[in-house]
Amino acid sequence: MLPLPVLLLALSSPTPLFVAAAADPCVVIAGKTFVHPSDALACLKSFPFNETLRQNVLTHNIARVVDFFTFEDYYLQSPPPFQDSTVNIRAALANINTTKFATDYDFNVALYDFATRLNDGHTRWFPDCYTSYQNLLPAPIVSLEVNGVQGVYVVPDLVEFVSLLGSSYTDLIGIDWQRLAGAQVISIEGRDPYAYVDFIAATVSGNYLSHNVRVNSVFSSYRLTGNAYSQRFGDFAGPTGVAQDSLTFQVILVNSTKPETVTVPYIANFLGAPFTDGPSYWANNCAANEDTNGVDFKSGTAGLESNTVKRRQPMANIVDKSTGNAIGLPSRFEPTLPTVGGDQGVIKSYILPGNKTGVMFVGSFGPNSFDGFQRDVVSAINAFKAAGVTRLLIDLTNNGGGFICLGQFLHQYLAGTRIGYPGFVSTARGNPLARKIVASDIELGLNGSFSFYTADNWAFLNGTQMPASFNYMTPDVPIVINGKLDATSQRFHDTCELSFIVPIPSNPPFDLQNVAIVSNANCASTCAMFSTLMNERHGTKIAVFGGNPREQIEFKGMAGNQVLEWKDIDSEIKTGNLKDDPLAPADLLVSGNFRHNWRTAWSFFDEKEPIAYVFELPRFRFAYTPDTYNQPQKLWQFAEEKLFA
Ligand SMILES: *[C@@H]1O[C@H](CO)[C@@H](O)[C@H](O)[C@H]1NC(C)=O
Ligand SMILES: *[C@@H]1O[C@H](CO)[C@@H](O)[C@H](O)[C@H]1NC(C)=O
Ligand SMILES: *[C@@H]1O[C@H](CO)[C@@H](O)[C@H](O)[C@H]1NC(C)=O
Ligand SMILES: *[C@@H]1O[C@H](CO)[C@@H](O)[C@H](O)[C@H]1NC(C)=O
Ligand SMILES: *[C@@H]1O[C@H](CO)[C@@H](O)[C@H](O)[C@H]1NC(C)=O
Ligand SMILES: *[C@@H]1O[C@H](CO)[C@@H](O)[C@H](O)[C@H]1NC(C)=O
């Protein structure tokens, strides 16, 4: 199946095996966790360009999935201050369709960059073949305030942090990297460090419409993933892929005053499936597998059994490839306070010294246990109440979202039932295939166990759940965006309350004046919706740390609504018996995922505006310091003093 000319030659001639092995660049890196990026790149570039695969991926799959993407027409001229995300999506696809590419890698990287630069973490192309390496530079950077002045620094905890990767990483570096710990960065690749950071934010980071939110993603930061503290390398020191071999810095080392120039190598970290050579790399990482495409939930064991019992939970999240290898926060920087109220899920809660302020670090809205998250919230609030705590500080740093209904749950629990509906007014796109799916689902008698398109997933704006047989796509509601007429569904609410398993108080457990949020604004999807609800409906105090000090920063990252993975929209189509429709996207022949933002959340401030395009500033903005960038407890104590004074 693999069209490797070198290999075919090797097989069809009596060439000794070792020559064949040396000729296959994938053999050189097989079985190794850490490799030089140029060696990995040689393997990734060994697969020739294939027009059949281009047409499968681009014309028959992605271009048809874009029909469902809620924000397509906004991109024709993204409203200020998001102008840098203006892209004519159809023209860009047509361009990639006619560009001459030497390798399959080049084609996929062009598509990956196109989708990444939409800066919508819900709408991305992940070709598994080429996202299998994360490039790691032993010099992650942060923006810190030192003696009242903000600047870019190599992370002060460099030695402890990078050493956690082990000697198979550090042995490859080949320079005395430890001396860079805490060094001030004067320039990167000959440019002002903030200008270089802006460049990475514009070209590499993706995920967030707001430029300065992306800037924080470029820097190293603490996070809570998989019930453990870890530290992101950041998009500067830990990008996906193997595009770059090294970077040249000008730095002033700690205790020095003289700038010096250093060139630091990237070392690529393999996160994909094991392989031994080019053909097995392709088979295990690049070819479509049984999980790539969707299934018909009506037939077989595909999901019928589990889905007849439970409602399917809508998701809103970004994909952070760097969590594939979550590198621990050096343990001495973790909070020293004991956790309260249970810490088995994605939330860790603490009571700050003095017993006035309770902290909930909500690392994600995507726990393993949907119900467990709700119980964790209740037990944390109960523990705070029992300790006489009167103020609540919520840390949303690097919260990439998760279950939409857990964001609405946390909002409702904190604000009480008296506020009524805890979510946003929402719509899906009413493109012709979407309308056929809804009509077909009705004809087939399906419900929310089988499809996100059936109306019983939603409620009318008066709160009454729609019957599954209701067609909310007909009549559609036309909207005009950038001069283009777009058919949209009727407006609806979520039905999250059907999934709340704990009693919700009618009044807020804490005076909402005494609830505050801190984050690095890398708060995506469900997290962005939660913090936007707290801002738009309760005027909650929100503080954002970091960013480029010369620019404003929003408190929210990607603020789309429900996201569908390629597999999800394909399952909707197959379950609705519409896979043969000429508008239906084809099954992918390669292992990959073109996910898309499938629903819009409309702002309370202006119901004609998606919250994604409402630029919302936090009430407080702080720089990180050498103490707070990687020590959450110190950040919370700082915030307690500043926000509750
Ligand atoms: C291109 O890919 C298709 C699908 O995997 C395959 O059938 C075909 O042989 C490939 N073409 C060439 C020229 O290798
Ligand atoms: C790509 O080009 C082919 C012809 O080469 C055409 O059939 C197809 O529609 C084009 N796809 C897109 C998305 O422009
Ligand atoms: C810098 O100087 C201080 C004070 O003399 C010393 O404690 C520290 O170890 C020095 N750091 C480095 C990296 O040389
Ligand atoms: C959908 O219908 C099936 C019976 O066909 C039922 O078992 C299931 O509970 C229903 N799901 C929902 C979410 O109402
Ligand atoms: C806070 O609560 C703990 C546990 O109940 C108690 O031991 C401590 O003395 C309290 N501290 C203050 C300042 O009230
Ligand atoms: C809510 O609105 C729907 C659609 O207009 C209507 O059918 C239903 O009776 C209303 N429910 C209540 C409780 O008013």
TrEMBL record:
Annotated signal peptide: 1-22
InterPro entries: ClpP/crotonase-like_dom_sf (IPR029045), S41A_metabolite_peptidase (IPR052766)
The entry's keywords: Signal
Superkingdom, natural source: Eukaryota
Record-given protein name: TSPc domain-containing protein
Species annotation: Favolaschia claudopus
